[in-house]
Specification:
The structure holds two protein chains of two kinds. By secondary structure, chain A is of the alpha+beta class. Chain A has one domain. Chain A has three helices and five strands. The longest helix of chain A is centred in the middle third of the chain and has 17 residues. Chain A starts with a strand and ends with a helix. The model of chain A has no long low-confidence stretch (mean pLDDT about 95). Chain B is of the alpha+beta class. Chain B has four domains: about 100 residues, Alpha-Beta Plaits (2-Layer Sandwich), CATH 3.30.70; about 160 residues, Sulfite Reductase Hemoprotein, domain 1 (2-Layer Sandwich), CATH 3.30.413; about 90 residues, Sulfite Reductase Hemoprotein, domain 2, CATH 3.90.480.20; about 140 residues, Sulfite Reductase Hemoprotein, domain 1 (2-Layer Sandwich). In chain B, strands 16, 17, 18, 19, 20 and 21 form a six-stranded mixed sheet that branches. In chain B, strand 14 and strand 15 form a beta hairpin. The mean pLDDT of chain B is about 95. Classes of the chains: A alpha+beta, B alpha+beta.
């Protein structure tokens, strides 16, 4: 299973493709894609968003869903989804606490 | 200290204006990311894991209080209240917004700083010994030459699209603290038979996926030939360096594939063509630049200080600091002081805005307004009166940068690793933090003595692991972090590339492995004066291997 991810052009924030072609700031809100065709469809939406100056560096990444929660497979993506492990006060993890 | 001339000021402000317009066009959709990326990189702006990252040059690691205060201001205003000093004497801001970067560059230009040539396939920020202009063992201050090289290489049209990046380092002392032999060009100041200044020239050193020690191409290059000879090297590299494969594009590969003698002949032939031309350095021009780096007025004093001795006797932390964080100054009564940016369990090279402000204040109060950043990610005041040390130390304690660990096992170099870097394959900083905690006790560190641990989070080796006495390289294996250990590397005048000791370790195992290596060293050293590196060079890897993996 995959999700589509990128960084927001304006501020570099990590985002994922969510419902209705929106770019969401939490991986839990991402839309999941199964199989080559679906992933290609997701990447095509991403490329259009790149062309529209919304995001940069679109790619697909592996996830699993456990108890309805989307979890990145690779550590790199887990760190992107939360923030630097050395700075718990920064990145998504900080927003999660303050939200 | 060097100040911009009108030429510098005008090109930096032109470049800032250009970049402002490029960002505007990018945000307006007139430039695609493919078009914009090389432009932003030329201005030091990367896109990392969580955000953009701006790398600001600190030429040859020298800056003053006003500049440091500006860096603090940028951290506070446009970032998350901190910056990170890198292994190339730069500073990186980890969270700037794209839309803010033109404003940041404008602010930097106000204090004669910029981010030009901190990225891209060009000649990068020239690095130098962090004790330059102060060290007792120095032949001459290397910074005037670094500055001449900076002026020559800045926006050099012929060398703006090299096969790959190009790094130059220079040291003024026979004890190399600038790692010159692992740079594309390494320069070591020397005196010729007539007493004149010149350089031993090394070419083709580098780390990364193919680590190599630089090869000596000149025993002595006279001062006046510095630019012509450098230009000759760059021309040969620009012409013959490989462009077909990014991983084989550095000059070290050209040296290796062409052979030293043939390459030397190519360089000399090119040099002959241009040595009598416009690049020949006129003596008066070198002396003019040198005057910018004139040392502050320093009164010769006593080589020892009663105030320092008294405090040492009563304060163990101060004694530890004095034992490790001072470097002999050429003027009696003075010393160069290392502020440790490696607090126990902390993040190597990180400085908060408050710490940067404190450093600026201390430089003005105690250090003739001179600050240096070392490639080992520490901060130095090069000219401090011995008698001022107790008062200075108290303020360092307040600022949290008073650890007496310079050159010891917790003075670890580490790249940002996978906590920040898009290229990384594993984390570096948490490993550095755990090692620092394990060995943090002052007595234990002192007992172990000089030991340089260097950690990189990928094969590109920004953490210089190949030249660590103990090097740690973070990789990914089956989705897990995994650390390869090398032994016996060194970046000084007796440079060597470390050898892989055996199979790697998981994140959980790696700190225990380092402890086994250290215990093995303590058990076999001939005495306290034999350092880890010396002991390793004497006995070889076997005892260390056995300690890690058992008898073969």
């Amino acid at each position: 299973m995959k999700v589509i991810t990128a960084n927001r052009l304006l501020n570099g924030d990590v985002v994922w493709l969510g419902k209705d072609d929106a770019w969401v700031e939490r991986i839990t809100l991402a839309r999941t894609f199964d199989g080559k065709e679906e992933v290609a469809e997701g990447l095509a939406i991403g490329q259009k968003a790149e062309a529209d100056q919304k995001v940069v560096g679109v790619y697909d990444m592996d996830v699993t869903v456990e108890d309805g929660v989307i979890l990145p497979v690779r550590l790199r993506e887990r760190i992107r989804a939360t923030g630097p492990t050395t700075h718990p006060q920064f990145g998504k993890q900080a927003q999660a606490v303050s939200a | 200290m060097y100040r911009y001339d009108e030429f510098d000021a005008s090109f930096v402000s032109q470049r800032t204006e250009q970049f402002k317009d490029q960002v505007r066009r990018r945000l307006a959709g007139e430039l695609s990311e493919d078009e914009f990326k090389p432009l932003r990189l030329m201005n030091g702006l990367y896109l990392q894991l969580h955000a953009y990252m701006l790398r600001v040059a600190i030429p040859y690691g020298t800056l003053n209080g006003r500049q440091m205060r500006k860096l603090a201001h940028i951290a506070r205003t446009y970032d998350k209240d901190y910056g990170h000093f890198t292994t190339r004497q730069n500073i990186q801001f980890n969270w700037p917004k794209l839309e803010d970067t033109p404003k940041i560059l404008e602010e930097l230009a106000e204090v004669e700083m910029h981010a030009i040539q901190t990225s891209g396939n060009c000649i990068r920020n020239v690095t130098a010994d962090h004790f330059a202009g102060a060290a007792a063992d120095e032949i001459a201050d290397p910074r005037p030459y670094a500055e001449i090289l900076r002026q020559w290489s800045s926006l050099h049209p012929e060398f703006s699209f090299l096969p790959r990046k190009f790094k130059i380092a220079i040291t003024g002392a026979p004890n190399d603290r600038a790692a010159v032999q692992v740079h594309d060009i390494g320069l070591q100041l020397a005196r010729g038979e007539d007493g004149g200044i010149g350089f031993v020239v090394f070419v083709g050193g580098g780390l990364g996926r193919t680590p190599m020690i630089g090869r000596k191409v000149r025993d002595f290059l006279p001062e006046e030939d510095l630019l012509a000879y450098s230009e000759a090297i760059l021309r040969v590299y620009n012409r013959y360096g490989r462009r077909d494969n990014k991983y084989k594009a550095r000059i070290k590969i050209l040296v290796h594939e062409t052979g030293l003698e043939e390459l030397k002949a190519d360089i000399e032939a090119e040099f002959e063509k241009i040595r009598h031309g416009v690049l020949r350095l006129p003596d008066e021009e070198v002396r003019r630049i040198e005057a910018y780096f004139a040392p502050p007025p320093l009164e010769v004093g006593s080589a020892s200080s009663d105030a320092v001795e008294a405090r040492k006797a009563s304060d163990a932390a101060f004694a530890q600091f004095a034992a490790h964080n001072l470097n002999p100054h050429r003027v009696p009564g003075y010393t160069s002081v290392t502020f440790s940016m490696k607090p126990i369990g902390g993040i190597p090279g990180d400085a908060s805005d408050k710490q940067m402000d404190a450093i600026a204040n201390l430089a003005e109060e105690f250090g003739h307004d001179e600050i240096r950043i070392s490639h080992e990610q520490n901060v130095i005041l090069p000219h401090v009166k011995l008698d001022d040390l107790p008062a200075l130390f108290d303020k360092l304690v307040e600022a949290g940068i008073a650890e007496g660990n310079a050159g010891l096992i917790t003075d670890i170099i580490a790249c940002p690793g996978m906590d920040y870097c898009a290229l990384a394959t594993a984390r570096s900083i948490p490993v550095a933090q755990r090692i620092s905690e394990r060995f943090g006790a002052a007595e234990r560190q002192s007992e172990i003595g000089e030991l340089k641990i260097k950690i990189s989070g990928c094969i590109n080796a920004c953490g210089h692991h190949h030249v660590g006495h103990i090097g740690i390289l973070g990789l990914e294996k089956k989705g897990e972090e995994f650390y390869q250990v090398t032994l016996g590397g060194s970046a000084n005048e007796n440079a060597s590339i470390g050898e892989i000791v055996g199979r790697g370790f998981s994140s959980e195992e790696v700190v225990d492995a380092i402890e086994k290596l250290v215990d093995t060293y303590l058990g076999l050293r001939s005495g306290k004066e034999e350092t880890f590196l010396e002991a390793y060079r004497r006995v070889g890897e076997e005892p260390f291997k056995e300690a890690l993996y058992g008898a073969a």
